[in-house]
Amino acid sequence: MYDTLHSKAAVIHTWYGRLFRCLTLLSTSTACVLFNMLDRGKHKSHSRIDICITNILFGGALCLEVYAIGMMLVSYWTYAALHDCNYRSLGSLVFRSIQYFRPESRAKWSNLMAQHNLIGFCLLDKPTKLTKVLSVLGLKVHWDRWLYIRHIDVSSELKTLVFRELKDKTVSIVDAESYRKFSNHRGQWALQCKGYYKELGWSVEVEFDESILLWHIATDLCFHSGDGDDNDAKMIPHYVDISRAISNYMLFLLVARPFMLTAGIGQIRFGDTCAEAKNFFKRAEMARPSASAAARMVLDVNAEIAPRDVKGDRSKSVLFDACRLAKSLLELQPHKRWRVIRVVWVEMLCYAANKCQSNFHAKQLSTGGELLTVVWFLMAHFGVGEQYRIEAGHARAKLIVQKN
């Protein structure tokens, strides 16, 4: 997709594109040979340095042309085009030669997912002279993204989980009504299936950006809680790692890629939540609290009274609403808790991928691609993307991809 949308590959890998590539190599080679075959006597009026520079330029041009043709020959486009050639044909011989370079095994995207953590950011982001200057220059946001956002590999376990959850959910889609329910679920279906919608459903019925922040903070609070009923991180690292990876990735999208989410006032809510968290940690008078200590401090707050009843609705902070959610989750057994958190995050990820406009998915291909875009393509393969919406009848499109 990147080659098609952001490069000349769609032209280069046509018959006339390959012809022009060969012609440019031939013309450059001819020019180089003719230049050096000129009467040597005519060169006496020219500087030897100029002649050397010209030959160096010719050499560089030839190297670039040879390299371009080599890359064209071992590209996935050529590999796919020659795949079904007759066994005894010249194309088949070229195909077998290309196989040694294994173009089909090359990564088609960066295979990375960005990570941003709210509590970690609030603990590390201290006012300094540098940050004050950057704020005046309007560069503080870019500085924060460079300093506090990191990238991790997308694990095979996470890919398998997303695939399995999508496959299980698509079975229930039989008509337009069931599709509408599927496309609008962003945690509701997971909570209903697990039997916790009555206790936790309020957290996924709010605006999507608020729901992301609530579950992100609650996931962190549960991770750092140390509730004494076996260490969750040691007991079920598989669930915990996937949950935290998606949680931090979704916060990154909310902060750095808001155009990919139906985020509403997500950045305002994030800013207010960070401000309240920083003030809370500052009042605690702890010099440098760890993430675990900070999480326990938040969990010690009495969150039975809704924060809006205390401070009004002027602030959009969700810090203590998230604390209330975390306390509800901590009442569950560790393995049940992390199963719920995990499937809710997968559902939110699929919802975000489905609702993101296609032009924004295409835009991110130029920066290495996003996990969100890969999920969007996977949903398209299952025939459940927005592009396959059917308002009437019982038919549902599905793209069948045969693996050779």
TrEMBL record:
Asked if the Swiss-Prot or TrEMBL record annotates the protein with the keyword Plastid, the reply is no
Which segments constitute the DUF4220 domain?
1-120
| Bilayer-crossing regions | 15-35, 56-79
Q: Which Pfam families does the record match to this protein?
A: DUF4220, DUF594
InterPro entries from the entry? DUF4220, DUF594
* Record's keyword terms, sorted: Membrane, Transmembrane, Transmembrane helix
Q: Entry's PANTHER family?
A: OS01G0798800 PROTEIN-RELATED
Specify the protein name. DUF4220 domain-containing protein
Species name? Zea mays (Maize)
